[in-house]
Amino acid sequence: MSAIAVPAELKAKSGKEQQTLDVLLEVMRHSRKEEGCLLYNLHQAQDDPQTFMLYELWSDQQSIDRHIETAHYKAYRSSIEPLLHDRQVMKWNQID
Q1: Nearest Cα residue to 84 out of 40, 28, 23
Q2: What distances in angstroms separate CA 24 from CA 62, 95, 96, one per listed residue?
Q3: Residue 24, class by beta-carbon neighbours within 10 Å (0-12 exposed, 13-18 middle, 19+ buried)?
Q4: For residue 82, what are the contacts with CB-CB under 8 A and spacing of at least 6?
Q5: What does DSSP say about strands 92-93 and 37-44: parallel, antiparallel, or unpaired?
Q6: Model confidence over 55-88: pLDDT tens digits?
Q7: Is residue 48 within 8 Å of residue 66, measured between CB atoms?
Q8: I need a labelling partner for 42 at 20 to 30 A (CA). Which of 16, 22, 67, 95 fits?
Q9: Taking all residues of the chain, what is their mean pLDDT, rounded to a whole number?
Q10: pLDDT score of 96
């Protein structure tokens, strides 16, 4: 079974950039410790400080399923939603 990449682009509301960053750093810190998490990186657009990207790499779908059931993921989702204009998430199967 191949790994699954999950890039997510998040657009913070104006003035909510720091709060968004704080929430994203917290979920990243916890997620990196999860079984099946191969990579979990956070990026901020050079030309738009309101735009963030999470790039996650998981060993399989079961790891992602466990991830979205964790307390830190659920806290992240409830904390991040009021801070965002938009959130786009995709899943990509790695081709070896």
Answers
A1: 23
A2: 22, 28, 29
A3: buried
A4: none
A5: unpaired
A6: 999 999 999 999 999 999 999 999 999 999 999 9
A7: no
A8: 95
A9: 97
A10: 76
Which residues are bridge partners to 43 per DSSP?
53
Sign of the Cα pseudo-torsion (44, 83, 20, 70, in order):
negative
**Model-level pTM?**
0.92
90: left (phi > 0), else alpha (psi -120 to 50), else beta? beta
Orientation angle between helical segments 71-80 and 17-31, nearest 10 degrees: 170
* Both structure tokens of 40: 């979990």
Q: What is the dihedral of CA 78, 25, 27, 41, to 10 degrees?
A: 130
Q: Is 80 left (phi over 0), alpha (psi -120 to 50) or beta?
A: alpha
Q: How far apart are CA 1 and CA 57, in angstroms?
A: 13
